[in-house]
Amino acid sequence: MARILSLGSALQDIYLIDHDDLEPTAIGEESIFGKILVGSKVDIDKLSYEVGGGGVNSAISFARHGHEAILMSNISNDVAGNAILETLDTEGVDTSYIKYTTSKSTGSSVILLDSKKGERTILTYRGASTKFDDFDASDLDAIRPDYIYITTLRGDIKTLTRFLEKAHELNAKVMFNPGVKELESPSEILKLLKFVNILLVNKQEAAELVPGKTLEELLYHLKNYCETVIITDGPMGGIAKSGEEVYRFGIYEDVKMKDATGAGDAFGSGFLAATASNKSFRRSLVFASANSTSVVTKIGANSGVLNGKEDLHPMPIQKL
């Protein structure tokens, strides 16, 4: 098994779940939770406390797969932070590199979830996960990871650069799933991709980095920057290239979605978990899709994360 370090946010997710009051209402081409009036009281069917954030979700995925999972993130010494630590300890994630801050509370999200359709709106207070400039890249000398999985660092290009350069120095492989804030600096991200082994973006994110309208066009440009590129396109599946292998893939299975939270994290971490277990590129893509599919069938960003021992059925995937 591999040593995998996750860099990213740690949040407590508080679900407010209801079957009718949170039903989406269409206004033009948009949808809103239209049955809640300002000043009213609404009875919610269910309340659920979960943990999430890109760092937490990916670390749990790696640990369940049997890898040595290490998380570097920021929390505070409060109820939400303790809930996150308790979950990570239960999952077997190394939390010794989690940092504590006294200036902000642990990040939290309130998720309004329509239990009928699985639609949700997320209200996020990032708190301790707002900034990552206290992360010390020299910690990699002690951690000695085989892989580093980086989700959004809220646009902190300086911290991102330090870790990528240090990972390159130590020959640690990097998988990068940039967020909205990183994509606000596309030229800077493109320069840094020389230090990235695996890039994961969705179609819209890819179009913010390089020209192109189709998945094929976007992949054609991104492959010049990174060894392995995966571009997802929601229910349409996606496209991926590693070396000479190129695949167009669909979704693993058409399931009733309960909660889409964490689906992207499950795909990315699922791919790396399988890759780090020496699975083929094709097999890793299948597992990534299966992991993401499993997650959306349960409430919570990591409740449905697979462990890699499941028997997977075939899915639409074609070598190009």
Kindly report the CATH topology: UDP-N-acetylmuramoyl-L-alanine:D-glutamate ligase
CATH superfamily: Ribokinase
Helix content: 25-40%
Cα-to-Cα separation, first versus last residue:
31 Å
β-sheet strand percentage: 25-35%
CATH class: Alpha Beta
Outline:
globular
What does this structure look like?
There is one protein chain. By secondary structure, the protein is an alpha/beta fold. It has a single domain (3-22, 44-319), classed as Ribokinase (UDP-N-acetylmuramoyl-L-alanine:D-glutamate ligase, 3-Layer(aba) Sandwich). It is 29% helix and 26% strand. The protein has nine helices and 17 strands. A nine-stranded mixed beta sheet has the order 6-1-11-12-13-14-15-16-17, sandwiched between helices. It has a four-stranded mixed beta sheet with strand order 5-2-9-10. It has a two-stranded antiparallel sheet with strand order 3-4. Strand 9 and strand 10 form a beta hairpin. The longest helix has 15 residues, at 281-295. The radius of gyration is 19 Å and the shape is globular. The mean pLDDT is 94.
Task: List key phrases describing it.
single chain; 320 residues; UDP-N-acetylmuramoyl-L-alanine:D-glutamate ligase; 17 strands
